[in-house]
Amino acid sequence: MTVALLQIENLHTYYGRVQALKGIHLEVEEGEIATLIGANGAGKTTTLRTISGLIRPREGKITFGGQDISSLPAHRIVGAGISHAPEGRQVFSTLTVTENLNMGAYSLGGDKEAIEDNRRRVFSLFPRLEERKHQLGGTLSGGEQQMLSIGRALMARPRLLMLDEPSLGLAPLLVKAIFDTVREINARGVTVLLVEQNARAALKIAHRGYVLETGKVVLSGPAGELLRDERVRKAYLGEQ
User: Fold this and answer.
1) pTM, to two decimals
2) Which end of the chain has less Cβ packing within 10 Å, N or C?
3) 16 belongs to a structural domain
């Protein structure tokens, strides 16, 4: 029996006294794209923030590559192989594109050869970033900032890339380009956990999906099945 790359068991997370996650269970297999869908406030971002160590769970267990990471600090979780491109891009506006990318490689400990190799990989995915490598992050368009956020997360050479709302605020043509890139990243051997408001687009590229409502997983299964599920179609795909 193979063990999933990421396993979450009975996860409970709080903001102060407010419980955001209520006993979540989920798995992400190595090599797949898994997606979390649900309304605003369902707990999708909190799930990613808890996995990446930005919030401590009050109860439950997170296992990655067979290692319990539930109590590790965030920088150790990056070192273990998990990178997180947060909601809202959060690029460093006063740093250049290259400097932003280098910030994502701090876990490599100044290995210049590895950092340059990783930068080349990012530029092969996002040629636009190479064209803009001396430009300040704050002067990039929204789509370019999203590319930079994803590229920065890839600089640590993660086994698992977590993306939080990568299509938010982008024009339809750019949304398609971002989803094509997520597919390409996965084809290059990176497992992806995707949080996305655009449920239809997410389920179309994912292998597996989880539906969150008020901090609980209420539906899960192969992404194709969820796309055809009547409850999902009514609640999240805008179909009557």
Assistant:
1) 0.92
2) N
3) no
